[in-house]
Amino acid sequence: MELKNEELERLYAETFQGIESGSILTGKIVAVKPDSVIVDVGFKSEGIIKASEFLSEEMESLKEGDELEVFVVSTGDSEGMLVLSRERASRIKAWVDMEERMKENSPIEGVLVGKTKGGAFVEVSGIRAFLPASHIDLRPVRDVDSLIGQRMHFKILKVNSRRSNIIVSRRQYLEEQRQEMRTVILEQLKDGALINGTVKNITDYGVFVDLGGIDGLLHISDISWGRISHPSAHFSIGDDIEVLVLSFDRENEKVTLGYKQKRPDPWSTVEEKYPVGTSVTGKVVSIADYGVFVEVEDALEGLVHVSEIEWAPRPKHPSKYMQDGDIVEAVVLNADSKERKLSLSLKHLKPSPWELVAEHYRPGQTISGTVRGITEFGAFVGLPEGIDGLVHISDLSWTKHVKHPSEVLKKGQEIEAVVLSIEPGKERIALGLKQVSLDPWLSEIPQKYKLGDELKCRVLRLTDFGIFVDLNDEVEGLIYSSEIMDTSEPLKEGDDVMARIIKIDLDNRKIGLSMRNVETSEQ
Questions:
Q1: Picking from 2-11, 128-137, 216-225, 326-335, which range would have the lowest pLDDT averaged per residue?
Q2: Whole-angstrom Cα distance, residue 63 to residue 360?
Q3: Cross-strand partners of 388
């Protein structure tokens, strides 16, 4: 029997009595179809939700009896069923929740999903909120891309459901958290307390550590017991570290921190741990002109002075022997806890060449060597043992006055010399060049030069007390100032003059001359 229009309208009204479009209801799934989900919302009413509102995984997991919150889109379709939407119900509920949270000043959780001009977008319960750039963090963020995909907490600044507009702030949330932490930290801060913090900033003089609402300064001198070039060698911004509170000025909220104080000072026991003569192994950590620093343990470095690298009298630059990071063995020469000094030696691991010299050489022995260096006072001669002997300027010639050793010797020249003395304790060996030949003052000169002899002489140098002259390229003599005769032109170096021997002093190796009463035609 067909129903009249009036009866259909009555049944329709009875069926959807109490249900209005825009309502949010809770219903149970009564059927899951390929293209839709049928939900019983009560009141003798069933509604339909399009399958497109569900993910494929969700459709597979849905079953009869499951409860859903739905939004009534309309109170009847062509088949007399309610048109429902789960998505709109979720969105409306989320907006209501946002408004309540803003009133209660409660934080929300969301994911930063992208950036835009002036800020970023945050996904919160299916709603996209705007996060201004100035509210992303406590400090300006240069790389927003690095935060995309991260789940964070925010505070709601503004909600406008009509315009679908919501503004959130992460900075406000962090500030409130920081203030809460600050209250807790201030209660914990006291001298000697261990506390965790985050490296906030690094300067030349130290590190600023965020302790949670209050900053503390870790001075460079309190980072390590050892030598430190710059705080950045130990810490990076963002590092989580444990520090010790050295002092806390509660009135000014000034906190001084320590890092090295968490463990004993290694220098306090250096004398007991490294007595003189102890062999140690360490890593080269720094090279200077004057030596090499070797780390023998954490924060404890010793110095190998350049003179302690090898036995050579004039060692090369330390970088010629080793590089940073090299592992070396050394001997302790001295350990001083008060001065915080540990002196090391590499050369003392090997026998001293001076011990060999004392065994191989004796005074009076003739040796061979190479001139390695020339100074104003003499020449250094290299010996096979790796040491240098010194030929003093006074031991270069028996008969001539040598102004500079370079007049007689050249660097690299092979020579023979006589050992004059050996002092192994002072690391000295004295050599003589003139001693290789006999002293002419003992034989040749007394026989060849007699009192009264008149000779042609070459002027060597002029002095206030006389003129030094060369006699036959063999020996020097002095024409006394009182024995100089006037000449037509002033005398100069290189001039030839005639002079007569008036004094021979063999003990002091001197010959005196006079230009007076010279009878030769040269006069």
A1: 2-11
A2: 105
A3: 382
Q: Determine contact, residues 26/68, Cβ cutoff 8 Å.
A: yes
Token representation of residue 13: 């009204």
The residue type at 507: D
- Domains of the chain (ranges plus CATH)? 18-89 (2.40.50.140), 105-174 (2.40.50.140), 189-262 (2.40.50.140), 267-348 (2.40.50.140), 353-436 (2.40.50.140), 446-514 (2.40.50.140)
Structure tokens at 211: 């302790």
- Mean pLDDT, residues 227-236: 87
| Cα separation, 501 vs 142, whole angstroms | 98
What's the rounded Cα separation, in Å, for the pair 391 and 419? 9
Residue 20 sits at the vertex; the CA angle it makes with 14 and 21, to the nearest 5 degrees, is 130
> Would you say 291 and 318 are in contact if contact means Cβ atoms under 8 Å apart?
yes
**pTM (2 d.p.):** 0.47
| CA–CA dist 163, 37 (Å, integer) | 30
In this prediction, residue 162 carries a pLDDT of 66
What pLDDT is stored for residue 17 in this prediction? 47
Strands (E) located in 135-212:
151-160, 165-169, 194-202, 206-210
End-to-end C-alpha distance for the chain, whole angstroms: 174
Residue 295 · residue 280 · CB < 8 Å: no
C-alpha span between 113 and 103 (Å, rounded): 25
Query: In this prediction, what percent of the chain has a pLDDT beyond 70?
Result: 92
Residue 200: strand pairing partners: none
Distance between CA atoms of 70 and 48, rounded to whole angstroms? 10
Would you state the structure tokens that stand for residue 189, as one six-digit string?
């801060």
Torsion of CA 185, 187, 189, 194, to 10 degrees: -70
